[in-house]
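User: Predict the full complex structure for these chains.
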Amino acid sequence: DGGITQSPKYLFRKEGQNVTLSCEQNLNHDAMYWYRQDPGQGLRLIYYSQIVNDFQKGDIAEGYSVSREKKESFPLTVTSAQKNPTAFYLCASTPRWGAGAMEQYFGPGTRLTVT
Amino acid sequence: AQSVTQLGSHVSVSEGALVLLRCNYSSSVPPYLFWYVQYPNQGLQLLLKYTSAATLVKGINGFEAEFKKSETSFHLTKPSAHMSDAAEYFCAVTPKPGGKLQFGAGTQVVVTP
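Assistant: Here is the predicted structure of the two-chain assembly.
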């Protein structure tokens, strides 16, 4: 079955540690996205990638980094510079960038807790 | 620039009653509009989308939404609520020709017996 996988489902880290969240898709989509979700704030865009080997900052990129070395993979690193990293993180993809009527397909999310 | 406002962070409806979730948008260009649903600890699933083909859009699970340009609104409705409709609902907008989605803050729907 085609889709987006995110692992792990739950992740716990100590403050000051970097952590990498996995996002893999087998939909052959060009564009991929990372969102952060906090209660009452909807989804906020962290980074997006229009195509392999390219990525752009979203609205809240500070304290995060990404890479897009393969079309199917878009890992997100939450660095120690992120002030409030505890959140639910969602990865999404679309067949191509700029195709506005196309829906974004979402993964199941990773809940990160930093103490 | 575009933005989305969802009126009401929590809505409680009785089973069998009308579900009405409000969404207003602002966009400098004609937009594409979407409604997504999220069940607890899961990703988002598309309910329906407006792409300018028709102002009344039908989606999955009996939901529909009407695009009203004069009111800059895209409200979501379902005639009769089911217990399985309990979830969080997000309205989202992207300007044509597309790209980044702007999401509303979400509306949590509770369905009571």
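Chain B touches chain A at residues 9, 32, 34, 36, 41-46, 49, 51, 90, 94-101, 103-106 (CB under 8 Å).
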